[in-house]
Each structure stands twice: as structure tokens, then as C-alpha cells.
């Protein structure tokens, strides 16, 4: 079975102490014990080492960065490089979140560069894609997402592509309380898989975990995750509440 993943994206929330408390409350329950399950916490940069220390002895729990630089090193004030993440043993990194694409002008090409740097260090990229509302309303979301995938991922070898986790996050569903319907999510996840299959073959495409993100909550995770091509979720708001995120972890197939 493909890896089923519950990933928390804390974004720019919580103080250090609040983050420590939240992690402690969730980890007390040690829910990620099934072999094909992974629980990932994408925490702010200053909390990475603390979070890593809290999870090192636990199976199937991982800590992710929320971003990395597309530059290797040098005079880029305020940036955090892949080599830095590697040097503190971080094994996952979100890239291409729609908030970064929108507010920090991240292009598909820039994300291709980040992917290359991450894969060189054997860090799993969690690659986000997804369409804005006007594209959904024009019913051109399939082409839009296909272009994001092609321009950022298709230079990779099949072996490298297999190391990538994809997160489909329709922008109109992020932080809005409005989720894609299970049909809309399944349809897009199947489309993403078919785009990958056309390029790399069905065997490769079938190995790739595709997460859904956008208003995943404790009370809808079961239904969303039940779809055959949905392999878990990338969760914002509900990942900041221990009991809610615990329910979301429990909803993994
Ligand atoms: O952007 C998201 C996760 O990366 C989704 O955020 P919400 O779960 O708050 O809608």
C-alpha cells in the first residue's frame, strides 16, 4: 500500500512554548504506529531542532521545513538552505505552497530548482499544487495543475520522482472552511496520477502519495481520505489543535 500521510502545516503560527505543548499533546497518543502511516509536522524554522528532538525515538513521525531556498548558499539574507536543513537531519520539506507562490512570487521553475537541491540531499519534497478559484470556475483546473506538475517535476528521473510527495491544495479551499467535495478531490487526484502515469508509467504513478489540503477537519477527514487516490492530508488550521489533529491521524486509511 502507498504511504498514507497526515502532515501538519503550522504556517506562521504558535510561539515556541505553544509549539512544544502542542507536539507533546499529540505525541503522547503515539498514533503513527502503522507501518504504512507517516505523521509529519511542518514547523517554523526556529522550532525544527526542538521538534526533531521530540520525535527522534518515535517511529513514523517526521519533522518538515515549510520552505527552503532555491540557492545553494551565499549572500541571500534571511534564506534557509537545503544544506542547513540537511545538517540538522531534517528529512522532509514543503515546497510550492500556494501562499509562497502568491506572496513570494515562487515560479514553477524556481520550485524545480528547490526540488533538485532537496533530492540531492535525500530530503523528501512535499510538492504543493492547486488552482485558484477563477480557474476552477472556468473549469480549466486540470490543465492548470498539469502545467504546474510538468514545469516543476518532469525533468526528474523516475527514481527521483518516486521520492516526491504531492499535495493537491485547491486555493479556494485553504483556510476558507470550504473543502473540495470528495468527488472533486478524487477527480483531481486521479488526474494528477494519470498525468504522472503518462510520463513515467503507471507503476511509478501508483507509488506516489498524493495528499489533499484545504480545510481538512476532524469531522471531514474520514470521508476525504476514503477516496482511492487520496493518500492523506496536508492540514493547516486543524493541525494547531491537538485533539483535532489526532482525529485526522486516526482517519488515515
Ligand atoms: O494550506 C493548507 C495546508 O498547507 C490548508 O490550510 P487549512 O487546513 O487551514 O485550510
UniProtKB/TrEMBL annotation:
Per UniProt, subunit arrangement is:
Homodimer.
Family listed: Belongs to the triosephosphate isomerase family.
Coiled coil feature spans: none
Q: Which residues cross the membrane?
A: none
- Taxonomy, superkingdom: Bacteria
Query: What is the protein's name according to its record?
Result: Triosephosphate isomerase
The alphabetized UniProt keywords are:
Cytoplasm, Gluconeogenesis, Glycolysis, Isomerase
Kindly report the protein's main subcellular placement as a broad class: cytoplasm
Q: Where in the cell is it found?
A: Cytoplasm
Q: Which reaction does it catalyse?
A: D-glyceraldehyde 3-phosphate = dihydroxyacetone phosphate
Q: What class of enzyme is it?
A: isomerase
Residues given in the record as substrate binding sites? 9-11, 175, 215, 236-237
Give the pathway annotation: Carbohydrate biosynthesis; gluconeogenesis; Carbohydrate degradation; glycolysis; D-glyceraldehyde 3-phosphate from glycerone phosphate: step 1/1
Active site annotation, chain numbering: 97, 169
Q: Which taxonomic lineage is given here? A: Bacteria, Pseudomonadati, Bacteroidota, Chitinophagia, Chitinophagales
> What does it do?
Involved in the gluconeogenesis. Catalyzes stereospecifically the conversion of dihydroxyacetone phosphate (DHAP) to D-glyceraldehyde-3-phosphate (G3P).
What PANTHER family does the database record attribute to this sequence? TRIOSEPHOSPHATE ISOMERASE
Amino acid at each position: 500500500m502507498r504511504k498514507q500521510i497526515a502532515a501538519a502545516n503550522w504556517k506562521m503560527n504558535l510561539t515556541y512554548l505553544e509549539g512544544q505543548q502542542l507536539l507533546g499533546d499529540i505525541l503522547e497518543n503515539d498514533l503513527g504506529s502503522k507501518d504504512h502511516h507517516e505523521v509529519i509536522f511542518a514547523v517554523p524554522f526556529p522550532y525544527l531542532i526542538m521538534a526533531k528532538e521530540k520525535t527522534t525515538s518515535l517511529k513514523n513521525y517526521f519533522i518538515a521545513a515549510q520552505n527552503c531556498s532555491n540557492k545553494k548558499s551565499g549572500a541571500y539574507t534571511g534564506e534557509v538552505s537545503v544544506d542547513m536543513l540537511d545538517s540538522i537531519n531534517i528529512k522532509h520539506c514543503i515546497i510550492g505552497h500556494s501562499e509562497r507562490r502568491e506572496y513570494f512570487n515562487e515560479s514553477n521553475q524556481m520550485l524545480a530548482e528547490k526540488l533538485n537541491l532537496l533530492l540531492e540531499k535525500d530530503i523528501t519534497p512535499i510538492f504543493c499544487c492547486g488552482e485558484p478559484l477563477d480557474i476552477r470556475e472556468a473549469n480549466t483546473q486540470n490543465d492548470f495543475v498539469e502545467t504546474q506538475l510538468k514545469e516543476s517535476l518532469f525533468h526528474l528521473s523516475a527514481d527521483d520522482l518516486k521520492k516526491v510527495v504531492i499535495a493537491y491544495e485547491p486555493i479556494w479551499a485553504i483556510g476558507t472552511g470550504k473543502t473540495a467535495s470528495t468527488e472533486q478531490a478524487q477527480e483531481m487526484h486521479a488526474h494528477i496520477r494519470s498525468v504522472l502515469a503518462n510520463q513515467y508509467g503507471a507503476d511509478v504513478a501508483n507509488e506516489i502519495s498524493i495528499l489533499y489540503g484545504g480545510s481538512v477537519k476532524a469531522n471531514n477527514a474520514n470521508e476525504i481520505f476514503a477516496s482511492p487516490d487520496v493518500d492523506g492530508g496536508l492540514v493547516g488550521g486543524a493541525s494547531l489543535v491537538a485533539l483535532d489533529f489526532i482525529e485526522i491521524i486516526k482517519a488515515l486509511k
